[in-house]
Amino acid sequence: MNISKPYLLFLGDAPDLLAVKTATGLQQWCAPACVGQLRLPGCAPKLDLPELSLQQAKQCGAKTLVIGVVNRGGVIPDSWLEILNQALVLKLDIASGLHTRLGDIPSLHDSVTHSGSRLHETRHPQGPFPIATGQQRSGHRLLTVGTDCSVGKMYASLAIHKALTEQGITADFRATGQTGILIAGGGIAIDAVVADFISGAAEKLSPSSDNNHWDIIEGQGSLFHPSYAGVSLGLLHGSQPDWLVLCHEPTRTHMRGLADQPLPDLTTCMATTIEAASLVSPNVHWAGCAVNTSTMDPTRAQDYLEQLGNTLQLPCVDPLRNGVSDIIRRLPLTSTH
Amino acid sequence: MNISKPYLLFLGDAPDLLAVKTATGLQQWCAPACVGQLRLPGCAPKLDLPELSLQQAKQCGAKTLVIGVVNRGGVIPDSWLEILNQALVLKLDIASGLHTRLGDIPSLHDSVTHSGSRLHETRHPQGPFPIATGQQRSGHRLLTVGTDCSVGKMYASLAIHKALTEQGITADFRATGQTGILIAGGGIAIDAVVADFISGAAEKLSPSSDNNHWDIIEGQGSLFHPSYAGVSLGLLHGSQPDWLVLCHEPTRTHMRGLADQPLPDLTTCMATTIEAASLVSPNVHWAGCAVNTSTMDPTRAQDYLEQLGNTLQLPCVDPLRNGVSDIIRRLPLTSTH
């Protein structure tokens, strides 16, 4: 999957900002690639981007219309079809992370056949994927892992990738989820791959590279989440990381979506993760801990991070508040500047 | 998936016995449900079953033609189509574990539309599957797990299920692989489910049941196999076992298919498995160890089993040579006779 930038962000008739978090993520992490937004009548949220028609966006160089809104059930309502068809007529590609496949909608199928545009369905990975081999690969790989789902793994990965790039290190952000894939312009929705190929897809996503090159791999789920641990373990093995960053949200009272499931103890979680990773990465290390303290006031957050750092003897930061320089300082970096 | 018995076993033009191991598995584990075999010209292997035409099989009560042969690439050769189409005309169902979908072959698609027969594609699970909840379920569940792939998990599960049933215990064999599904007449090919739903599919496969009921769940892969561990972990969590049986093949020199990957130490493997299982099964126990000693002479096999039993302080048997009574003696069984 190779999604052409720049993007026009389609917000549809979204009811609130939460419904367009794909669009806000894109605006935050690849602003220069977002030429504008397109909102339908009734759309409540508004981004700090020019409002453009399809024609205007095309004139600004847009290559892909990105559906930056999610709705209940992941369906494509009829009210979007006129815009989507027009986009194809104008030879824009369309990228979607919704459940419904764009290509399954007859009018879009017809339009895309005529225009030669591409439909990118980020929720439906394009195989075939190989069975994982576990063979040792060259280059550096850092994987973010979590105590739970939705604790900031994508954010931490992107922040680390950005910080490395700013230091002149050659690095790729390897996306494994919908939003990450749109930000990177490619990747594999690892939780949508057939079970037998989880690790194989992860191996394909972060291939052998130059010895000084870093792949920063977006983690998914948690080894301690009963719904998704298989995905997390397959991704861990396939990624063959030599460095890990633990992502955590300290105010969670239970695992996301499971009211009866407690969060793992951090040191247990770290020991289990290292043991599992060492099956394919005998020299794997912790680089640090990325804590999402967004629900804590600054003083409490700083106290928590200091205490955790003392306990774990590792850099513990909130990437949003503190940046990630403490974490990447631990990595064996070789600048190519 | 609910596959109607009895079966007519189709061996195609198989070159040798290994190519028809699905058929031999069925003959071994559900002989009364196998009315006969159908071999094409050039088929080398021959089972100890009547050779029947489609019409004869129909007269003997056959409900389903089972493709009991695998070939390179899992395709359906043109030379099979006449028989498969005739089977549908005679209103037989067809079950296949091949990669190619029967329903994707135009002539079969047409025939099945006319006849009203059913096509069972065991390699393509029929969803939708739920996201796993990890909620505690009633009834007993025993899962077989392995140090590696292909070490006898299906055999051990079937042997335990048979022994329980013979003692008057109500039990179901829950199949997670192709051959197991045909033997059971249903199940879910867990490695073919989309990654996000591995555990959810496993929960669906072994639902809450009576307190005295046992589900004997066929394990897949190994937590220590870098290609498939994600499948094994998702199945472990979704199965929520209260009892585990470790399956092992002691003469393996490396993990199946991966020449550089050593086998796990048995006690490490057991500790890791218990730790992972306890996320959803706080009271999980080992029932014993099922060892495939088929490559060892009887004396060496018996020595090995005794030594292993002393080390692990658990019943260690070869189900084929010794039966599984030592293992099921450890289970809290309540006969309903």
Topology:
The structure is a homodimer of 337-residue chains.
Chain A: E1 7-12, H1 21-29, E2 34-39, H2 54-59, E3 64-67, H3 81-89, E4 93-96, H4 106-115, E5 119-121, E6 140-146, H5 153-166, E7 171-174, H6 178-184, H7 198-205, E8 214-217, H8 229-239, E9 243-248, H9 266-277, E10 285-291, H10 298-312, E11 316-317, H11 319-322, H12 325-328
Parallel strand pairs in A: 1-2, 1-3, 3-4, 4-5, 6-8, 6-9, 7-8, 9-10, 10-11
Helix pairs in contact in A: 1-6, 3-4, 7-8
Explain this structure to me?
Two copies of one chain form a homodimer. The first copy, chain A, contains twelve helices and eleven strands. In chain A, strand 3, helix 3 (81-89) and strand 4 form a beta-alpha-beta unit. The model of chain A has no long low-confidence stretch (mean pLDDT 95). Chain A is α/β, with parallel strands linked by helices. In chain A, the strands form two sheets. In chain A, strands 7-8-6-9-10-11 form a six-stranded parallel sheet, sandwiched between helices. Chain A has a five-stranded parallel sheet with strand order 2-1-3-4-5, sandwiched between helices. In chain A, 32% of the residues lie in helices and 16% in strands. In chain A, helix 1 runs parallel beside helix 6 (178-184), helix 3 runs parallel beside helix 4 and helix 7 (198-205) packs across helix 8 (229-239). Chain A is globular. Chain A binds chain B through residues 131-135, 190-196, 198-200, 223-224, 226-235, 237-238, 257-258, 260-261, 272, 275-276, 279-280, and chain B through 131-135, 190-196, 198-200, 223-224, 226-235, 237-238, 257-258, 260-261, 272, 275-276, 279-280.
